[in-house]
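#lab-general

N.A. 3:47 PM
ok so I finally got the sequence cleaned up, no stray characters, all 483 residues accounted for. can someone with queue access submit it? mine expired

B.Y. 3:52 PM
send it over

N.A. 3:53 PM
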Amino acid sequence: MFTTVIGTIVFVADVIIRIFAVIYVPQNRKPQTAMAWLLAIFLIPYAGILLFLLIGSTRLPRRRRNKQLEINRYILETTEGMDDVVRDHSFPSWLNPIVELNRTLGSMPLVGGNNAKLYTEYSESLAAMTEALGEARKFVHVEFYIIAWDQTTTPFFNAMEAAVRRGVTVRVLLDHVASLRSPHYGRTIRKLRRIGVTWRLMLPVQPLRGKYQRPDLRNHRKLLIIDGVAAFTGSQNMIDRSYNKRGNRRRGLQWKDLMVRFEGPVAAGINALFVTDWYSETNELLTREATPVPEEKRENAMDAQVVPSGPGFALENNLRLFNALVYSAQERVIITSPYFVPDDSMLYAITNAAYRGLDVQLFVSEIGDQPVVFHAQRSYYEALLRAGVRIWLYRAPTVLHAKHFTIDDDVAVVGSSNMDMRSFSLNFEISVMMHGGDIVRRLRDVEQSYREQSTELFLEHWLERSLFVKVLDNTARLTATVQ
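B.Y. 4:20 PM
back already:
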């Protein structure tokens, strides 16, 4: 009798879970994401529903979403009229609607009169950021997904301490979970306390302190702002290029990144993102520190627009930007992304560009540091190759971690965003869209340097991989759609 009752309860619970899943899971979700969740729940109902309740929502707490709306309104009000950019014969007509799209979604204007300096070597970019700290006279804003005090980053920490000693306000934001998972977290926090900076954790997972949201919603941005007039952003974290992990050192893995130093009005836009994130974590609004950018003529100046994205926004700002640019391309699309796991819309945009006869190229790493993502990425190669996309595998043991792409000879985008579903939906990211100057030509040189260190992948070779590897790749792909 007891066994019958238990069996009935289990059966009824199983039916209720499945009915609940069919009704609730597909609401406001992409079909591929909904199908992945439904598959998980129907195959392993109890574990699946538990996982869904734990990480099934990409929405931040209402308090944080309201703060994002408040800061967006502030940015719109204080940047009215800044969209005025010289639109001469070199300004493509298709770019105007994309500028408006970015303004609507992320509030940031397109601004002219900017310069950008590219750093492709890890040590050079770290040295440049360290040197920039010495230029600060009012404030320094530091925000990185991962910050670690190690032998490589010691000069940067020393420069922050020196800035504090000469009266500069230094604020530091670091992602809680990402930095916590990295070696030396405890001593890094102690170091920040000792040198006197004001620091906070981003998106802390501290339920006992009333701070909790879906734990894999992360702030993936990398920013350094000096007095609001110069700013760095890109793909590099503030950590040794081995990420201080034994497994990486054993395999000889070394990260290769791209950082950009911006000067001009766009630096204020990058600072606005720090202001947003600082307000979210501290309730302190730093608008009183806004520094007017001096109007000066810059040689080889370019237009630039900051595009913020993440779960604080109602829509996937970076995905919409990327798709719009790829569909607008007339000649070529060249993409560099360490983690390439596109959703259906991004995959269609890229393969359609290749089917239209455009020169479409993708730079990825030959090896990966995250096995599931690495295998999920590989599952897309066949469709890309069949469409005519050229795929370049950056040779091991270097992990090509740079994140940028170029459209024709007109537009470039750099930032922290990968072309994967995590960056589209779960991570706070920054992208900077640029036009003019010689920025595309300089990125073409960077792309050529990658090409010289890469091996091209061909369809005939790719189809020869074993059945086991194909199954592994496709299984990993399924997990990537569970967002």
